[in-house]
Amino acid sequence: MPWSSRAVLLRDLILGVLGTAAFLLDLGADLWAAGQYALSGRYLWAALVLALLVLASVALQLFSWVWLRADPVGLHESQPPGRCLALLHFLQLGYLYRCLQGLQQGLLVWQQEEPSEFDLAYADFLSLDISMLRLFETFLETTPQLTLGLAIVLQSGRAEYYQWLSICTSFLGISWALLDYHQALRTCLPSKPLLSLGSSVIYFLWNLLLLGPRVLAVALFSALFPHYVALHFLGLWLVLLLWIWLQGTDFMPGPASEWLYRATVATILYFSWFNVSEGHTRGRATIHLAFLLSDSVLLVVTWVTHSTWLPVGIPLHMWLPLVGVCLLLGLALRLVYYRWLHPSCRWEPDRVDGARSLSPLPHSQLPQNRRMIHLARNFFPKAKDQAALSGKGEVNGVL
Protein backbone atom coordinates (compact mmCIF):
# COMPACT_ATOMS: atom_id res chain seq x y z
CA MET A 1 0.00 0.00 0.00
CA PRO A 2 1.33 3.50 -0.81
CA TRP A 3 2.50 5.42 2.25
CA SER A 4 0.00 8.22 1.54
CA SER A 5 -2.91 5.77 1.69
CA ARG A 6 -1.55 4.15 4.85
CA ALA A 7 -1.21 7.59 6.46
CA VAL A 8 -4.85 8.39 5.62
CA LEU A 9 -5.95 5.10 7.17
CA LEU A 10 -3.87 5.77 10.28
CA ARG A 11 -5.42 9.24 10.60
CA ASP A 12 -8.91 7.76 10.31
CA LEU A 13 -8.06 5.17 12.96
CA ILE A 14 -6.82 7.82 15.37
CA LEU A 15 -9.93 9.95 14.81
CA GLY A 16 -12.08 6.86 15.34
CA VAL A 17 -10.39 6.11 18.65
CA LEU A 18 -10.78 9.74 19.74
CA GLY A 19 -14.45 9.76 18.72
CA THR A 20 -15.19 6.60 20.68
CA ALA A 21 -13.30 7.91 23.71
CA ALA A 22 -15.20 11.22 23.48
CA PHE A 23 -18.50 9.34 23.44
CA LEU A 24 -17.56 7.38 26.57
CA LEU A 25 -16.26 10.50 28.34
CA ASP A 26 -19.45 12.40 27.49
CA LEU A 27 -21.55 9.53 28.81
CA GLY A 28 -19.49 9.41 32.00
CA ALA A 29 -19.77 13.19 32.44
CA ASP A 30 -23.57 13.05 32.12
CA LEU A 31 -23.85 10.25 34.66
CA TRP A 32 -21.47 12.10 37.00
CA ALA A 33 -23.51 15.29 36.70
CA ALA A 34 -26.73 13.40 37.41
CA GLY A 35 -25.12 11.83 40.47
CA GLN A 36 -23.90 15.19 41.73
CA TYR A 37 -27.35 16.72 41.33
CA ALA A 38 -28.94 13.80 43.17
CA LEU A 39 -26.44 13.98 46.04
CA SER A 40 -27.10 17.71 46.46
CA GLY A 41 -30.85 17.13 46.61
CA ARG A 42 -31.63 18.49 43.13
CA TYR A 43 -33.58 15.45 42.03
CA LEU A 44 -35.45 17.19 39.22
CA TRP A 45 -32.21 18.19 37.50
CA ALA A 46 -30.84 14.68 37.91
CA ALA A 47 -34.04 13.20 36.47
CA LEU A 48 -33.91 15.56 33.46
CA VAL A 49 -30.29 14.62 32.71
CA LEU A 50 -31.09 10.91 32.88
CA ALA A 51 -34.29 11.29 30.86
CA LEU A 52 -32.47 13.05 28.01
CA LEU A 53 -29.76 10.41 28.13
CA VAL A 54 -32.23 7.51 27.96
CA LEU A 55 -34.39 8.99 25.19
CA ALA A 56 -31.38 9.73 22.99
CA SER A 57 -29.90 6.30 23.60
CA VAL A 58 -33.13 4.51 22.70
CA ALA A 59 -33.48 6.49 19.46
CA LEU A 60 -29.85 5.78 18.58
CA GLN A 61 -30.26 2.03 19.12
CA LEU A 62 -33.41 2.02 16.98
CA PHE A 63 -31.59 3.70 14.10
CA SER A 64 -28.68 1.28 14.37
CA TRP A 65 -30.93 -1.79 14.52
CA VAL A 66 -33.17 -0.72 11.62
CA TRP A 67 -30.14 -0.02 9.43
CA LEU A 68 -28.59 -3.40 10.22
CA ARG A 69 -31.85 -5.13 9.32
CA ALA A 70 -32.04 -3.19 6.05
CA ASP A 71 -28.45 -3.92 4.95
CA PRO A 72 -27.89 -6.56 2.24
CA VAL A 73 -27.82 -10.16 3.42
CA GLY A 74 -24.27 -11.41 3.92
CA LEU A 75 -22.69 -7.96 4.08
CA HIS A 76 -21.81 -8.19 7.78
CA GLU A 77 -20.47 -11.74 7.85
CA SER A 78 -18.16 -11.07 10.80
CA GLN A 79 -20.96 -9.87 13.06
CA PRO A 80 -22.48 -12.02 15.82
CA PRO A 81 -25.88 -13.71 15.26
CA GLY A 82 -29.04 -11.64 15.08
CA ARG A 83 -30.13 -12.47 18.62
CA CYS A 84 -26.82 -11.26 20.05
CA LEU A 85 -27.09 -8.03 18.07
CA ALA A 86 -30.67 -7.56 19.25
CA LEU A 87 -29.54 -8.09 22.86
CA LEU A 88 -26.71 -5.56 22.43
CA HIS A 89 -29.13 -2.95 21.14
CA PHE A 90 -31.65 -3.76 23.88
CA LEU A 91 -28.88 -3.17 26.44
CA GLN A 92 -28.13 0.20 24.74
CA LEU A 93 -24.75 -1.02 23.51
CA GLY A 94 -25.45 -1.09 19.77
CA TYR A 95 -23.76 2.22 18.94
CA LEU A 96 -20.69 1.38 21.02
CA TYR A 97 -20.50 -2.00 19.27
CA ARG A 98 -20.58 -0.24 15.91
CA CYS A 99 -17.72 2.03 16.98
CA LEU A 100 -15.61 -0.94 18.05
CA GLN A 101 -16.47 -2.84 14.87
CA GLY A 102 -15.41 0.14 12.76
CA LEU A 103 -12.11 0.39 14.63
CA GLN A 104 -11.53 -3.34 14.22
CA GLN A 105 -12.15 -3.20 10.46
CA GLY A 106 -9.95 -0.11 10.08
CA LEU A 107 -7.13 -1.76 12.01
CA LEU A 108 -7.48 -4.89 9.87
CA VAL A 109 -7.14 -2.87 6.68
CA TRP A 110 -4.24 -0.82 8.00
CA GLN A 111 -2.27 -3.94 8.99
CA GLN A 112 -2.56 -5.52 5.54
CA GLU A 113 0.19 -4.91 3.03
CA GLU A 114 -2.26 -4.91 0.10
CA PRO A 115 -5.82 -4.73 1.41
CA SER A 116 -8.57 -5.64 -0.99
CA GLU A 117 -10.82 -2.92 -2.30
CA PHE A 118 -13.78 -4.70 -0.73
CA ASP A 119 -12.18 -4.41 2.74
CA LEU A 120 -11.55 -0.72 2.15
CA ALA A 121 -15.11 -0.15 0.96
CA TYR A 122 -16.52 -2.06 3.93
CA ALA A 123 -14.44 0.03 6.35
CA ASP A 124 -15.83 3.18 4.73
CA PHE A 125 -19.35 1.73 4.85
CA LEU A 126 -19.08 1.26 8.62
CA SER A 127 -17.50 4.66 9.21
CA LEU A 128 -20.29 6.44 7.30
CA ASP A 129 -22.97 4.84 9.49
CA ILE A 130 -21.00 5.75 12.61
CA SER A 131 -20.65 9.34 11.42
CA MET A 132 -24.39 9.74 10.98
CA LEU A 133 -25.19 8.02 14.27
CA ARG A 134 -22.71 10.36 15.96
CA LEU A 135 -24.53 13.34 14.49
CA PHE A 136 -27.89 12.03 15.72
CA GLU A 137 -26.46 11.39 19.19
CA THR A 138 -25.02 14.90 19.23
CA PHE A 139 -28.34 16.64 18.64
CA LEU A 140 -30.53 14.20 20.56
CA GLU A 141 -28.37 14.08 23.67
CA THR A 142 -25.32 16.38 23.73
CA THR A 143 -27.04 19.57 22.57
CA PRO A 144 -30.09 19.23 24.89
CA GLN A 145 -27.74 18.37 27.76
CA LEU A 146 -25.67 21.46 26.95
CA THR A 147 -28.78 23.64 26.93
CA LEU A 148 -29.94 22.13 30.22
CA GLY A 149 -26.50 22.65 31.79
CA LEU A 150 -26.43 26.29 30.76
CA ALA A 151 -29.97 26.82 32.08
CA ILE A 152 -28.99 25.29 35.43
CA VAL A 153 -25.94 27.56 35.65
CA LEU A 154 -28.05 30.62 34.81
CA GLN A 155 -30.76 29.67 37.28
CA SER A 156 -28.40 28.87 40.16
CA GLY A 157 -26.06 31.81 39.55
CA ARG A 158 -22.90 29.72 39.83
CA ALA A 159 -21.12 26.91 38.02
CA GLU A 160 -19.05 24.03 39.29
CA TYR A 161 -15.84 23.13 37.51
CA TYR A 162 -17.34 19.97 36.02
CA GLN A 163 -20.18 22.05 34.54
CA TRP A 164 -17.78 24.43 32.79
CA LEU A 165 -15.78 21.48 31.48
CA SER A 166 -18.95 19.81 30.19
CA ILE A 167 -20.17 23.02 28.53
CA CYS A 168 -16.89 23.68 26.69
CA THR A 169 -16.41 20.11 25.53
CA SER A 170 -20.05 19.92 24.39
CA PHE A 171 -19.69 22.99 22.18
CA LEU A 172 -16.53 21.59 20.60
CA GLY A 173 -18.06 18.13 20.21
CA ILE A 174 -21.17 19.42 18.44
CA SER A 175 -19.15 21.47 15.94
CA TRP A 176 -16.82 18.53 15.35
CA ALA A 177 -19.78 16.19 14.70
CA LEU A 178 -21.14 18.62 12.07
CA LEU A 179 -17.74 18.82 10.37
CA ASP A 180 -17.29 15.04 10.47
CA TYR A 181 -20.75 14.48 8.98
CA HIS A 182 -20.11 17.00 6.20
CA GLN A 183 -16.82 15.32 5.35
CA ALA A 184 -18.58 11.93 5.34
CA LEU A 185 -21.17 13.21 2.85
CA ARG A 186 -18.40 14.35 0.53
CA THR A 187 -16.72 10.94 0.50
CA CYS A 188 -19.94 9.46 -0.92
CA LEU A 189 -19.78 11.30 -4.26
CA PRO A 190 -16.85 11.29 -6.69
CA SER A 191 -17.64 14.81 -7.90
CA LYS A 192 -17.25 16.40 -4.44
CA PRO A 193 -13.63 17.01 -3.34
CA LEU A 194 -12.84 16.75 0.34
CA LEU A 195 -12.44 19.84 2.47
CA SER A 196 -8.93 21.20 2.80
CA LEU A 197 -7.48 21.98 6.23
CA GLY A 198 -8.30 25.68 5.92
CA SER A 199 -11.86 25.01 4.74
CA SER A 200 -12.35 22.53 7.59
CA VAL A 201 -11.22 25.09 10.18
CA ILE A 202 -13.58 27.77 8.82
CA TYR A 203 -16.46 25.28 8.57
CA PHE A 204 -15.85 24.22 12.19
CA LEU A 205 -15.67 27.82 13.41
CA TRP A 206 -18.79 29.16 11.73
CA ASN A 207 -20.84 26.23 13.00
CA LEU A 208 -19.48 26.84 16.50
CA LEU A 209 -20.14 30.59 16.37
CA LEU A 210 -23.70 30.18 15.04
CA LEU A 211 -24.64 27.33 17.34
CA GLY A 212 -23.49 29.09 20.53
CA PRO A 213 -25.97 32.01 20.38
CA ARG A 214 -28.85 29.67 19.57
CA VAL A 215 -28.11 27.38 22.51
CA LEU A 216 -27.64 30.35 24.86
CA ALA A 217 -30.96 31.90 23.77
CA VAL A 218 -32.83 28.66 24.48
CA ALA A 219 -30.97 28.24 27.79
CA LEU A 220 -31.95 31.77 28.86
CA PHE A 221 -35.60 31.08 28.15
CA SER A 222 -35.33 27.74 29.98
CA ALA A 223 -33.85 29.42 33.05
CA LEU A 224 -36.57 32.08 33.13
CA PHE A 225 -39.57 29.92 32.20
CA PRO A 226 -38.68 26.29 32.95
CA HIS A 227 -42.36 25.30 32.78
CA TYR A 228 -42.87 26.79 29.30
CA VAL A 229 -39.70 25.75 27.49
CA ALA A 230 -41.26 22.36 26.68
CA LEU A 231 -44.18 24.15 24.99
CA HIS A 232 -41.76 26.33 23.04
CA PHE A 233 -39.77 23.33 21.87
CA LEU A 234 -42.89 21.31 21.04
CA GLY A 235 -44.43 24.18 19.05
CA LEU A 236 -41.35 24.77 16.91
CA TRP A 237 -40.68 21.04 16.63
CA LEU A 238 -44.17 20.43 15.21
CA VAL A 239 -43.70 23.23 12.66
CA LEU A 240 -40.34 21.81 11.61
CA LEU A 241 -41.78 18.28 11.50
CA LEU A 242 -44.55 19.50 9.20
CA TRP A 243 -41.96 21.18 6.96
CA ILE A 244 -39.98 17.93 6.72
CA TRP A 245 -43.11 15.90 5.98
CA LEU A 246 -44.12 18.29 3.19
CA GLN A 247 -40.71 17.68 1.56
CA GLY A 248 -41.58 13.98 1.22
CA THR A 249 -38.55 12.32 2.81
CA ASP A 250 -37.94 8.64 2.02
CA PHE A 251 -34.74 7.89 3.90
CA MET A 252 -35.67 4.92 6.12
CA PRO A 253 -36.82 1.47 4.92
CA GLY A 254 -40.30 1.64 6.50
CA PRO A 255 -43.00 4.21 7.30
CA ALA A 256 -42.65 3.86 11.09
CA SER A 257 -38.87 4.28 11.01
CA GLU A 258 -39.28 7.17 8.56
CA TRP A 259 -41.24 9.09 11.20
CA LEU A 260 -38.43 8.39 13.67
CA TYR A 261 -36.03 9.95 11.17
CA ARG A 262 -38.30 12.95 10.62
CA ALA A 263 -38.67 13.50 14.36
CA THR A 264 -34.89 13.36 14.78
CA VAL A 265 -34.27 15.79 11.92
CA ALA A 266 -36.87 18.18 13.37
CA THR A 267 -34.86 18.14 16.61
CA ILE A 268 -31.67 18.92 14.69
CA LEU A 269 -33.39 21.78 12.84
CA TYR A 270 -34.40 23.26 16.18
CA PHE A 271 -30.70 24.02 16.71
CA SER A 272 -28.95 23.85 13.33
CA TRP A 273 -29.44 23.35 9.57
CA PHE A 274 -29.91 19.87 8.10
CA ASN A 275 -30.97 19.23 4.49
CA VAL A 276 -33.41 16.37 3.81
CA SER A 277 -34.62 16.72 0.22
CA GLU A 278 -33.29 17.18 -3.30
CA GLY A 279 -32.89 20.55 -4.95
CA HIS A 280 -30.86 23.67 -4.31
CA THR A 281 -30.33 24.11 -0.59
CA ARG A 282 -29.48 27.82 -0.48
CA GLY A 283 -33.09 29.01 -0.35
CA ARG A 284 -34.20 26.52 2.28
CA ALA A 285 -31.08 27.14 4.37
CA THR A 286 -31.70 30.90 4.25
CA ILE A 287 -35.34 30.47 5.31
CA HIS A 288 -34.29 28.20 8.17
CA LEU A 289 -31.55 30.59 9.31
CA ALA A 290 -33.96 33.53 9.29
CA PHE A 291 -36.49 31.45 11.22
CA LEU A 292 -33.98 30.49 13.93
CA LEU A 293 -32.60 34.02 14.19
CA SER A 294 -36.10 35.48 14.62
CA ASP A 295 -36.97 32.94 17.28
CA SER A 296 -33.66 33.49 19.12
CA VAL A 297 -34.19 37.27 19.10
CA LEU A 298 -37.65 36.82 20.59
CA LEU A 299 -36.24 34.59 23.32
CA VAL A 300 -33.54 37.13 24.19
CA VAL A 301 -36.07 39.97 24.20
CA THR A 302 -38.17 37.93 26.61
CA TRP A 303 -35.14 37.62 28.87
CA VAL A 304 -34.41 41.36 28.71
CA THR A 305 -37.95 42.19 29.87
CA HIS A 306 -37.71 39.67 32.75
CA SER A 307 -34.00 39.88 33.63
CA THR A 308 -34.72 40.43 37.32
CA TRP A 309 -35.78 36.80 37.55
CA LEU A 310 -32.19 35.59 37.28
CA PRO A 311 -29.52 35.79 40.01
CA VAL A 312 -27.82 39.18 40.21
CA GLY A 313 -24.30 37.74 39.96
CA ILE A 314 -24.66 36.70 36.31
CA PRO A 315 -23.15 39.44 34.05
CA LEU A 316 -25.35 38.68 31.05
CA HIS A 317 -25.54 42.36 30.10
CA MET A 318 -21.84 42.06 29.33
CA TRP A 319 -22.06 38.64 27.69
CA LEU A 320 -24.99 39.29 25.34
CA PRO A 321 -23.13 41.88 23.20
CA LEU A 322 -20.27 39.40 22.93
CA VAL A 323 -22.72 36.72 21.82
CA GLY A 324 -24.04 39.14 19.19
CA VAL A 325 -20.52 39.65 17.90
CA CYS A 326 -20.04 35.87 17.73
CA LEU A 327 -23.26 35.58 15.72
CA LEU A 328 -22.17 38.23 13.21
CA LEU A 329 -18.70 36.69 12.96
CA GLY A 330 -20.26 33.27 12.36
CA LEU A 331 -22.42 34.66 9.56
CA ALA A 332 -19.38 36.37 8.03
CA LEU A 333 -17.32 33.16 8.16
CA ARG A 334 -20.18 31.22 6.62
CA LEU A 335 -20.31 33.68 3.72
CA VAL A 336 -16.52 33.50 3.34
CA TYR A 337 -16.65 29.70 3.32
CA TYR A 338 -19.30 29.43 0.60
CA ARG A 339 -17.86 32.26 -1.46
CA TRP A 340 -14.14 31.45 -1.49
CA LEU A 341 -13.31 28.28 0.47
CA HIS A 342 -16.06 25.88 -0.59
CA PRO A 343 -14.47 23.00 -2.59
CA SER A 344 -16.98 23.43 -5.42
CA CYS A 345 -15.28 26.75 -6.22
CA ARG A 346 -12.27 24.78 -7.46
CA TRP A 347 -13.92 21.53 -8.57
CA GLU A 348 -11.97 19.34 -10.94
CA PRO A 349 -14.09 16.80 -12.92
CA ASP A 350 -11.31 14.21 -13.16
CA ARG A 351 -10.43 14.26 -9.48
CA VAL A 352 -11.40 11.34 -7.24
CA ASP A 353 -11.75 11.99 -3.51
CA GLY A 354 -9.47 10.05 -1.19
CA ALA A 355 -8.37 7.76 -4.01
CA ARG A 356 -7.18 4.61 -2.30
CA SER A 357 -7.84 2.09 -5.07
CA LEU A 358 -5.43 -0.79 -5.30
CA SER A 359 -7.20 -3.14 -7.68
CA PRO A 360 -10.35 -1.88 -9.43
CA LEU A 361 -13.60 -3.73 -8.88
CA PRO A 362 -16.99 -3.08 -10.44
CA HIS A 363 -19.06 -0.75 -8.27
CA SER A 364 -21.79 -3.39 -7.99
CA GLN A 365 -19.37 -5.68 -6.11
CA LEU A 366 -18.49 -3.10 -3.47
CA PRO A 367 -20.56 -2.38 -0.37
CA GLN A 368 -22.38 0.89 -0.97
CA ASN A 369 -23.83 2.87 1.89
CA ARG A 370 -26.96 3.97 0.07
CA ARG A 371 -28.23 5.84 3.12
CA MET A 372 -25.37 8.33 3.05
CA ILE A 373 -25.33 8.45 -0.76
CA HIS A 374 -29.01 9.40 -0.64
CA LEU A 375 -28.34 12.23 1.81
CA ALA A 376 -25.26 13.36 -0.12
CA ARG A 377 -27.30 13.67 -3.32
CA ASN A 378 -29.83 15.79 -1.44
CA PHE A 379 -27.15 17.98 0.13
CA PHE A 380 -25.17 18.43 -3.11
CA PRO A 381 -27.78 18.93 -5.86
CA LYS A 382 -25.16 19.41 -8.59
CA ALA A 383 -23.44 16.12 -7.86
CA LYS A 384 -25.72 14.09 -10.14
CA ASP A 385 -25.04 16.30 -13.14
CA GLN A 386 -21.30 16.32 -12.48
CA ALA A 387 -21.22 12.53 -12.06
CA ALA A 388 -23.18 12.09 -15.28
CA LEU A 389 -20.82 14.35 -17.22
CA SER A 390 -17.75 12.53 -15.93
CA GLY A 391 -19.32 9.08 -16.43
CA LYS A 392 -18.39 7.95 -12.93
CA GLY A 393 -20.49 6.01 -10.50
CA GLU A 394 -20.98 6.84 -6.86
CA VAL A 395 -19.56 4.65 -4.14
CA ASN A 396 -19.04 5.54 -0.49
CA GLY A 397 -15.42 6.47 0.07
CA VAL A 398 -14.94 6.80 -3.72
CA LEU A 399 -12.46 4.01 -3.73
From TrEMBL:
It comes from the Eukaryota. The keyword Amino-acid biosynthesis does not apply. InterPro entries: XK-rel, XK-related_scramblase. It is found in: Cell membrane; Membrane. Pfam families: XK-related (PF09815). GO terms for cellular component: plasma membrane. It catalyses: a 1,2-diacyl-sn-glycero-3-phospho-L-serine(in) = a 1,2-diacyl-sn-glycero-3-phospho-L-serine(out). One of its GO terms (biological process) is positive regulation of myoblast differentiation. The chain crosses the membrane at residues 43-68, 161-181, 228-247, 259-276, 288-306, 318-337. Keywords: Apoptosis, Cell membrane, Membrane, Transmembrane, Transmembrane helix. It is a multi-pass membrane protein. GO terms for molecular function: phospholipid scramblase activity. Belongs to the XK family. This is XK-related protein. It comes from Ictidomys tridecemlineatus. The gene is XKR8.
